[in-house]
Amino acid sequence: GWGNLGGGVTQLIMGSVLFPLFKTGMSSEMAWRTVSIVPAFIGFMSGVAVYFISDDAPKGNYKELKKNGLMPEVSAAASFRTGALNLNTWVLFLQYGCCFGVELTMNNAAALYFKDAFGQTTESAAAIASLFGWMNLFARGLGGYLSDKANARSGMRGRLCT
């Protein structure tokens, strides 16, 4: 739930907070394009911080682990081939693509829909659209809880029905 909350937070911050700030000094069209630089900059700086501050794994960096013989050398091509030939990989790929693809589409289209269909301002349309992402905070947990209760009562059939 927290990971998928990002779409809602992005809609709210970019559309309802940053866009009005940028709009005061430039046209709406230019402000919307310029405000998109903010998450790109934050993402880039986060990547730089992760590269220089963090370890590759809980036991240390891969280069050091391999040098000390604590991690076997595995070719990237062999690892990719093993994953690509596993049927479970493709099933999960399709499931996730369908599920997260719908979520990305909703996050991208909802603000435009509320603006065009209901005449909302960009700021209010973004705030309303952000609710779809914020819904993940309780919906994911509630779905898991209900699934566990249905499983306790009816077994796997109950879990599948939720």
TrEMBL record:
The gene is Nrt2. One of its GO terms (molecular function) is nitrate transmembrane transporter activity. It comes from the Eukaryota. Its main location: membrane. This is High affinity nitrate transporter. The chain crosses the membrane at residues 30-53. The lineage of its organism: Eukaryota, Sar, Stramenopiles, Ochrophyta, Bacillariophyta. Belongs to the major facilitator superfamily. Nitrate/nitrite porter (TC 2.A.1.8) family. GO terms for cellular component: membrane. It is found in: Membrane. Pfam families: MFS_1. Keywords: Membrane, Transmembrane, Transmembrane helix. It is a multi-pass membrane protein.
